Amino acid sequence: MTKTIRLTMAQALARFLTRQMTMVDGRKVPLFAGVWAIFGHGNVAGMGEALYGVKNELPTYRAHNEQAMAHAAIAFAKATRRRRMMACTTSIGPGALNMVTAAAVAHVDRLPVLFLPGDIFANRKPDPVLQQVENFGDGTASANDCFRPVSRYFDRIARPEQLIPALSRAMEVLTDPADCGPVTLALCQDVQAEAFDYPESFFVETVWTQRRIRPDENELARAVARLRDAKKPVIISGGGVLYSEASAALAGFAERHGIPVTETQAGKSSLPFLNPLNMGAIGVTGTSASNRLAEEADMILAVGTRLQDFTTGSWALFKNEGKTIIGLNTQVFDAGKHRALPLIADARVGLEELSTNLGSYKAPATWTKSAQDGFKAWMKEADAVTAATNALPSDAQVIGAVQRALGRDISLLCAAGGLPGELHKLWQASTPSSYHLEYGFSCMGYEIAGGLGMKMAQPEREVVVMVGDGSYLMLNSEVATSVMMGIKLTIVLLDNRGYGCITRLQKATGGARFNNLLADSVHETLPEIDFAGHARSMGALAEKVNSLADLETALKAAKANTRTTVIVIDTDPWVSTEAGGHWWDVAVPEVSVRKEVDAARKKYETAVKQQRIGD
C-alpha cells in the first residue's frame, strides 16, 4: 500500500522544493537556494505558512518590489551558470503582474526561475475577490494568463493533486539545457490551503545533474568537413559556453586550431581578456578587430548563441557570400537560424568532439596573425577612449577609471542604456561569468536587483554594478534590501540627466531632441536629484565625486566597506565610443517634414541593402 502524508498543497510544494538537489564542484547542494516572497492576501495564508515550516531548509527572502526580486533570482541563476535557481511568490493581481517583465527577461535569456503567483479562487464562491481581473468572455482567465507567452511552462493549480504532475514537468523544464527558462505555476489561493494525501515517494530526494547532449554523427561529420575547408574561420562565443562551463574547451579548441574568438554580450568572459585569440566583442557594440574578421569570414562557428541582431549587425555584418555558419547549440530553434548548419550538442562536448575529429587542422597562420594584429590596433583605440580627462567624462572614461581602480578580478553587472555597448567593447574580464550583462531583453531596472542576485551567487567576489540615472530611478528599492540582508554591492551611478543613449539614437535617426534628457522634456522645474542622499536614506554608504581621479579613490576605499556603497558621478550624455561598432537596423520614417529625418532615411535605405536575409 502506498504510504502517504497529508499536507496542504502549499506545504507539499515547499517540501518538494527542499528535496531537489544538484552537484556543484563535486558537492551536493540544494537546487533551490531560496524563495523570494512578497506576501499578500493571495499567498500569505497558504504559501506563507508553508514556507515558514521549511525556513531552516529553504530560506525565504523579503524584497521591496516583485519585479526586482525576480530579477535577483534570474541573476542568481545566471551567475551560477544555471546550476542553481530560486523561486518567487506573490499575491494575486498587481503583485503577480509585476513579475511578468522579469519573466520575459528569463525567457529571452534562457534562465531558470520558478514563479509562484497567487491566483483566483478555484471554487469561485467569493468572486470577484480583491485584485481579481474579470474577463467578460472567459470565466477561466485571470491576470496570471499574462505569464503564458513568457513562460517555458505554464500551469494553474486548481486541485491539490495537480501539483504532482505540474512539479514534475516544471523540474524537467528548469533543468533542461535546451528548454531551460521560466516556469509559472499559478496557485489558486483556496487550493493552496486544501489538504491532500500525497505519496511519500513524491518527496524522495532527487539529484539533478547537467545533461550533456552529444552531437549526431552525421551533423558532426558535416561540420568537420566544412571546417577543414575553411580559410578564414571565426568563432562566436555565446552564453551557452558559460552555461556549459566550456571555457577551457573553447580555449583549447581555439589554440589548437588557430581560430580567433569573438564574444556576444552573454558570452563575454568565456575567454580571459588576455587570451591571445580573444578578439573581444562582436556586432553592433563590437570591436573593430572582431567585426573585420566577421565581415571576411568564410566559416562562422556560432557556439551557444541565439544570434540576435546586436551580434549579427542586424544580419548585415557577415559579408562573405561564400560563408558557412555552423550553429553549435543545444536548442534546435537557435542552431538552425539563417540557414546555419545545425550541430545539436552541449557546447563543451561539441567543441571537444569537433576538435578530435578535426585532427591537425589549423587555420592559415596569416589569418590568425592578421586577427591578432587587428586586436593590437583596437587596443590602442580602446586605451585612448578610456583614458582620464579633466572634462565632463564619458561612459567609456568612467569604465576606464573603474578598471584602473579595481582591476580585472571583479564581477561586473549592467543591463540597459549606453553602458552595455561601451562595456561590451571596453571591459576587460578575466574570469568566466565575471561579466554579467542582461542584454537579451535589455531591461532597465535590472541592475541593482541583479547585482543582489549575483552577489548571493558569488559571495567571495567584489561585485560592481554600473547603472545610469534612468535605470536607477526606475528601480532602486533593492539598495535597501541589500543593506537589510547584509549583502554588499559597489554601485557606480552615472548621472547624465536623462536617457542619454536614446537621445543619441534619436539624433542619429534624424529626430529632434524630445522627451529623453530631462532638459528636453515637459517640466515646470528641472529636477536636481541628490542620488547620494537618496541612497543614504536607504541605508547605503554614498557620495558624489567630481572627477575621475576622485572616482578611483572612492572605488578603492569602497573595497574595504562592509555595506553597499553608491558612488555618483556626472557624465556627458552626448559622447560614445565611435571606434568599432556596426550599423544597427532602427527603422527611419519614410516621410517627414524635417530634413534631418529625410537625410537619415536616405542613409538607412543604403544600409539595409547590406542585410543578407536567407543566405
TrEMBL record:
<keyword id="KW-0378">Hydrolase</keyword>
<protein>
    <submittedName>
        <fullName>3D-(3,5/4)-trihydroxycyclohexane-1,2-dione acylhydrolase (Decyclizing)</fullName>
        <ecNumber>3.7.1.22</ecNumber>
    </submittedName>
</protein>
